Amino acid sequence: MFRQVPLSRLEGHELVPQAIIDRPTSHFTQRLNIPFTRGEDDFDTYEAAALELNGDIVFELKRYSGYPENSTTVYLPYDIDNVEQITRLIAIIADELHIPQTWISWQRRDNPYF
Amino acid sequence: MGPAIAPNRPVVESIAIDLRQCRFLTGTSTFGCRNKRHFAVVVAREGGDRMGEQAINALLTKVFPTGMGFAFVALMQKHRLNLHISSCAARRDANNSGPRRGAWLRWRLEEPKSSARGRMIAGGGTHAPVIKGTAGTPLYNRRESPTQTRHDAATQVASMEVWGAAARGSAMPSVKAYRSAVMAPAARGVEFCSNVSPTAGKGTPFEARWYIGSTGVVTRQSGTFAAIPIYFIKNTQVP
Predict the structure, then answer these.
(1) Chain B residues with beta carbon closer than 8 angstroms to that of A13
(2) Chain A nearest C-alpha distance from B192 (Å)
(3) Which of A26, A21, A22, A27 is nearest to A59 (CA)?
């Protein structure tokens, strides 16, 4: 079960992109009532929402301005670096967010070396 | 150069630039442009000088109905169009433009040849990209943003290093860039090559990251920044 948390909940976390969903951020706003916040960091400007999975793992849905418009990327904490664990988590997140596998255009297991 | 639009045609009225027209231009190849995304807009004014984006916005706002100028620029950015600023275009045409005298917007199509990029299309001087080194592969790019300013770009050219701070909320600095192979550079930004490979397992097909601890990634300012040496850079954040 997921719940949205303030972006400030991400303080202290380095987040790494682990899956790309072929849906715009507006999809999540409209279907799941997840509002996105605009901001900027050292990379680029972005829209982001922070979520918590099962009261435990925090993750982020985000689209940097340079990414395709119809995409949203899932960011997981840096220290989750085992591909199997990442794959498992992405599957859980996809299930929670009602994302069919066909909408996941890329995920870490597809190319762990990116 | 597209043959369908005469070089000195006063486009403000004849094309009556509106968003429908923009979409038409971006959605067609009938103007003979090999890459339909590569066409140019020339903004000129009598005795004009080089104008920044803010000035262009101001000009377009005067020329077009409320809000359309901004929408137009946004559309250009969305489609990553090259923007060229003319310093002397069409004074003669301007004389015939009636109430819009002195404020001009003209379209030109540009072949996506590297030799054509960055040069002035219609008179006057331009700010050509600053290129240092010889391009190799893979290429990476960063877009102009509050954290990739014109000043940052100039510093990158001077130092031949790209630095990166920690992302918001994080304490781990990293250099971050788009992969040019799949994410073409924006009209303004830097494109670069480095012999240092991105940190494996931390990027995506679109995005590369270099973390401290990876081979070749160095620290700057007592670990506040990660940095990588680069051997090629093209800076289009000029001026």
Answers:
(1) 169-170
(2) 15
(3) A21
Q: Give the ipTM.
A: 0.95
From the list B119, B178, B120, the residue with the least C-alpha distance to B148 is B178
Tokens standing for residue B121: 């299309």
B204: nearest CA partner in chain A: A114
Portion 145-204 of B in contact with A at CB < 8 A: 145-148, 164-173, 176-178, 183, 186, 198, 200-204
**Interface residue A37 vs chain B (CB under 8 A):** no
Chain A nearest-CA residue for B184: A66
Pick left, alpha or beta for residue B13 (phi over 0 → left; psi -120 to 50 → alpha; otherwise beta): alpha
pTM, full prediction: 0.65
The upper half-sphere exposure of residue A43, i.e. CA atoms within 13 Å in the direction of its Cβ, equals 30
The tens-digit pLDDT sequence of chain B (239 residues) is 333 333 433 333 322 333 223 322 222 222 233 333 333 343 333 333 334 455 555 545 444 444 444 445 554 554 444 333 332 333 333 333 333 322 333 333 233 333 333 332 333 335 688 999 999 989 999 999 988 999 999 999 999 999 999 887 788 999 999 999 998 999 999 999 999 999 999 999 999 999 999 999 999 999 999 999 999 999 999 87
d(Cα A12, Cα B160) in Å, to the nearest integer? Answer: 30
> Nearest CB to B203: which of A7, A65, A114?
A114
DSSP-derived letter for residue B184 is: P
CA angle A47, A52, A55 (to 5 degrees): 170
The whole-angstrom separation of Cα A58 and Cα A76 is 7
Q: What is the least distance, in Å, from the CA of B190 to any CA of chain A?
A: 13
